[in-house]
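Researcher: Good morning. I'm working through a list of sequences from a screen, and I'd like to move beyond sequence-only analysis. For each chain I'm collecting a predicted structure so we can compare shapes side by side. This is the next one on the list. No need for commentary yet; just the structure.
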Amino acid sequence: MLTDLIFGEDFFDKILIVESAEYISILAERFPDAEIFFITTDEDFFDERAKIFVMDYREEILPFDAEFFDLIIGDLTLEVVVNPQDIAAGFSRYIKQTGIFLTSFTNIRHWTILEKLMRGWFNGIVSRFYTRTNFERLMFASFYKDVKFSPVIKSAPPKLLEKLIECGFENYGDDLEVEIWQVRAARSIPELSLLKSMYTADFRAEFARILHRVEYDVETFDSVENFWRLYDAAGMFESYAAEFIRSVVIHRENFYKNLRENSSRLETEKIIAETENFYDL
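Model: Good morning. Structure tokens for this chain:
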């Protein structure tokens, strides 16, 4: 299930479930303090654990504020839509900068689909199928920054698998036996998500402005002083400062030079070392 892609450190205050009612009980139990919303086209559906919205997410604008949800979850949500990028990007608008979208899709390279195609038994297309590469590109084009995949395997008969490979179907990562790909798409890369959860947007904007002033020699001494002023005011650790620098500063060597020449703080070399460690990884 998609809930297998929820990590131990994840915390959700507001959750939107799209058409996949089985997740209501699971998420209500796992996150008892969370506010759960559920979208369905079933006018008779009721569950006291969720706020029900009867609507078609494929056709209607969702009645929520931007960056409202920590999690949007729903199986196969992009398979039965006319324009999947519109839906995926639309969902991203409602997800917080620290939030995630959990969904799944049918792998068009799965052996059962290829076998039907080879036999001419594919009786019309009623939904969209994707390869992992297609879906990854769709997510990145829809404003998600970090995408992870988890396979649901349905093994192929050995002889059929051999035949498919002989016919030219590459089986990288055992892809021919992945029936469903489960997907975790985050609005931010992990280290930036942490920063966004700990510091306000105004603080991040101000700190980024100061980093650029140090980087580009703008009133350098005063800019370095302001760097340390914000660092102390926020109670920042060296590793967090390094993550900010990594995400904002382009000309790192010049930034390091200015920081060293205009500062006597003991943390300076630790911050530089932490930043370089990130790049080495």
